[in-house]
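Page 42, continued from yesterday. The earlier attempt failed because a stray header line got pasted into the input along with the sequence. Redoing it now with the clean sequence only.
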Amino acid sequence: MSALESVLVVGASLAGHSTARALRHQGFDGRLTLVGEEPERPYDRPPLSKEFLAGTLDADHLRLEPPGESLEAQWLLGSPAVALDAHRRTVTLADRTEHSASAVVIATGSTARTLPGAPPVGVHTLRTLADARALQADLVPGARLVVVGAGFVGAEVAATAHSLGLEVTVVEAAPAPLSRQLGAEMGGVVAGLHAAHGVALLCDAAVSGLVGDHRVRGVALADGRLLPADVVLVGIGASPAVEWLRTSGIDLSHGVVCDARGAANAPGVWAVGDCSAWYDPVLGRPHRIEHWTESRERPAHLVRAMLAGHQGQVSGDGLAPLRAPYFWSDQYGVRIQFAGHREETDQLVVEDGSADEANILATWRRDGVVVAVLGLNQTRAFARHRKALGRLPVAA
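This time it went through. Structure tokens are written below.
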């Protein structure tokens, strides 16, 4: 079994940086190259919708690299990857340069979905530091902000904008915020946070289009209502950033489809983070997870498999542990945490607290076994229940 001589990581955000760190921490001493579409060094994205947008945290405090850290890597920033020759493990960048390695790790993340026909001014998405700076400039006290989508980013921006003195309306197509993740009842608890702070929330409301020629003037709903808007944030989810791989032969049926260790369907090609769909032994299929914790923790598992010389698809036998999926969100001063795999048929049990006080701990049980847990301002109790969920098998 030969040692890896070089690794090329495509994507220089959390998943890519975590992969590079894991490589060095696990003893890889070969050539390491990181490719990044943005000109920025790696930075943390969750504060973009909160502290950074509110002006209480500047860009320097977002940096993921600790002071003095040296990964002894070559950084190729500001020129995105445009093609992959999987057979030669060669990546072509927009500047037409080619870069090859013994192994390629795809960590290109995801891109925000947009609404067609949007006016060029006043309509925003939020994925990057540049996006946050542009949105921040438009969040003027007294302005009318309409947020399309009550997911993590939309709800957090709504809470931040409300604290800055804007008039905020949130439009959500589903019956309740986060109902896909939490179900209707617990999604209703999250909806109560908006109501308690005077933020209008319109659920079961479909957007038909945005109004305005140069600058946005409003959001048109399918039922004929028009919501006046000086600023619009579109938070309707994201798509895996894999268009550059269309001619590579990599399985892109659900992002970059991988086995339970992050190996793609080409020797020496791996993927991690938002763009990847790892085989999930609990679900019995590849599953894409767009959460910070997964991008932070899974690279260590991928690197362990890579350095051990593993490759090829596996179905779940003989695997080492990986924690159940986890996400958190901060809204209106409330820490929302969720972990596990919830299904509609699972039994919901409120273990502690009250929805009226935005302080609640709930679990979901399947055949008497806790399979998921939700906490609102219940960090200690949530941590205990999360630990009790156990771990998912993932390849060593």
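Notes: The CA atoms of residues 52 and 242 lie 28 Å apart.
Reminder to self: strip header lines before submitting.
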